Amino acid sequence: MAQTLTYDEILDLAEAAHRRIDKKYADDPSYVIRKRVVNTATEVIRKVNDLAFSDLATDIYLICDEVGYKYFSSKYRNVIEFAKLHPEKLVDQLYKYLREIAREIKKENLLQEFFMFMSVLSEATRISIEHRGIFLAYLDLLSEQTEFLRPNIFNYNQLIVGITTEGDVLTINDPFPNLDLPVYELSKSRKKGNEAVAVMEKACRKYGYSYDDYEEIHATSGCYGNNINFLIPYINEFTYDMLPEKPYPPDSRIRLIEIKNPISYGEMLRARKRTLPANGLLIKFEDSIFFERAFLKEVYYNNSIHLLCKFSTINGDITVRYNTASEAFFSPFDWIGGYADDLHNTLKQIALWLYAAYVCPNEEQGILPTEEEYHSFTDDTKAKVTFSSIGGKARTTLSKSSNKHLDYEKYEQKSVSITGYIRKLPEGQKASEAKQLLAKSLGLSLSDNETYVEPFVRQSWKLKIL
What we know:
This protein is an alpha+beta fold. The protein folds into three domains: about 5-155, no CATH class; about 240-390, no CATH class; about 410-465, no CATH class. The chain has 13 helices and twelve strands. A six-stranded antiparallel sheet has the order 7-6-5-4-3-8, sandwiched between helices. Helix 2 packs across helix 4 (about 85-105), helix 3 runs antiparallel to helix 4 and helix 7 (about 180-190) packs antiparallel against helix 8 (about 195-205). The longest helix is centred in the first third of the chain and has 21 residues, at about 85-105.
């Protein structure tokens, strides 16, 4: 029978599980991951706790009806239902379950399908607002699952951030290494009050952190992790440079740029006149009150084109994503409230203005890639703004220091079909009906003398033929 627990009862379950891990696995390589899994299990239980069991039966097959999705929807739905029926068992059994799924994913070469499933559920948080909490619980599980897909499962200071076109996972080094270890040392010590503070201060120094700043650092780490998680399916060897590098502190109180005339971009961006350059669009800001630069790239994924926009601000990096088909916009600050909501909306307006100014300029609405029009759109009027397209064949942007598990000696670059563009036709010629339909499905507007060169041509790492 489904259970509804009090908040204190959920915390008691987690504390008891942590105590068992401290006792049994303190010296085991799996210790840190087991602790993290308990925290994830606790979050899943909390998200489904107040829901009726019938709500958990939301038919995600309606959203995940492609080949491979039913396998994953079944696997993780079992966990969601188990969290409602047997929360006291989930905290102990989730580690084993996630490890078994990871083995199956690797054995059956299901990495591409796994990341596609992750993308679909991320989109579902916007499509199904009523059941958003359930889908967020799924995403908690999928994010934890990535820890078991690392080249070395016990290298817990390495984060999975994407997958290459050849199916190899991509990683970065965690900018906050060992951040959770001070808390785990406190857990093992069982100290309370002033003694607990002393343990934490010592542990923070041990791992290179300030106890006084620990809460703020932890919040920054969480924001950075959220940013990575909604980008994972869209990061490959050509978009690796879109990952945020300098973590952004979420509680910054810097004055935000104000938008003078907010615009709805959905319809406009479904009739785009051009595509972004193969290697992206760079916008540089000098003397801006907030931005240093913005970097935009397009990704073709799951039958739609997604904008990735990486903002480098005076405080840190933020990468946002926009689905041109569904009009879903993602940032690390959505659904939080207060200042975060304002920041989310500001980033959305500016990212989409920059995108529209290049791919569907509109002189009547003042959407043009010029400094003057940027000043008309925002109160950032002292900023010097320049747009620079980065052309040529698309280039890989991998960091070898973070991806040593890839055997670069076995790879070479070859052209493969990936990115598309609008091309003018010779006089008297017209695009075929099939090309017109394809362009329309991707939100591109063709003139009578234009056609669409199908997605997508770029450079890719391919295994050498020896």
